[in-house]
Amino acid sequence: MPNTIQSKIDKNSKIAVLCGGLSSEAEISRRSGKGCYEALQRLGYKNSELVEVDKNIAQKLKDGKYDYAYNALHGKYGEDGCIQGLLEILQIPYTGCGVMSSAICMNKEFTKRVLAACDDIPLAKSVFVRKGQDVKKMTAELTFPVFTKPVSEGSSFGMTKVNTPQELDSAYKEALKYNDDVLIEEFINGAFVTVGVLEKDGKNFATEILEIRPKNEWYDYESKYTPGMSEFILPAELPPELTERVKDIAVKAHEAAGCRGVSRVDFMIGDNGVPYVIEINTSPGMTATSDLPAQSKVMGISYDNLVQIILNGAGLNK
Question: Which residues are catalytic?
């Protein structure tokens, strides 16, 4: 990878860096947006602007007469296809995944349904529980411990590790605070790893694999966003064959879900050596402690060059 990534976007373009938003991840998005905006300024895009996303975002975008949108939003309305649909209507090219792949990957259950149709993408056993269904009956065939997860939430909000069936009801109710639909997935004992997928010159490629060893029992919100609460192993200490397999599966999952430009694929590598895909994040964090910038840096891709790569993909989802 060259030290400097050539821009495919006119440096005089007016770029809206979309951040904040209406989800529980708004503050994280502001941190991502600030980092991307500052990188764009350093890269010479002096007409880039930070744009706080709220209920008036359509009017802000129309009034701003932007040439491109750099999507630094996370969570509901920002990476579920909603902002992407609005940008399509306004005919503003934008970074990252399009409407369909964003909507699919935001929903953990539907991501699994798409990936289950592919060969050689291992998935953890799980059940999908809608509000009002008998959660104990639905999970009767699962082996504990399990994770309860709101199907359309990020940053581990509403997520609980459940060690026994007796703990299930309270964990399920916690997940319901965020979504009416809940994914309950068997816990995979092993290593948590994540790998970014980027696009350059029309070709998808995987970043280095990052292994994350949280100080807490699992990779929760505190572990993700508090410096020092997780140990980052880069590159992950995996055998060469397993390293290549994880990277291949990441790209395959990215393409199967229709992703473009950028994504991050999370895995649990079980004690049996099987890399299980946990989820696909279509708008990876870009904060100082986020995974994707760290993965890219090990490959020789600086934060600014990473921002340029993602910006070069604006409009790929058309």
Answer: 25, 155, 225, 264, 266, 279, 281, 285
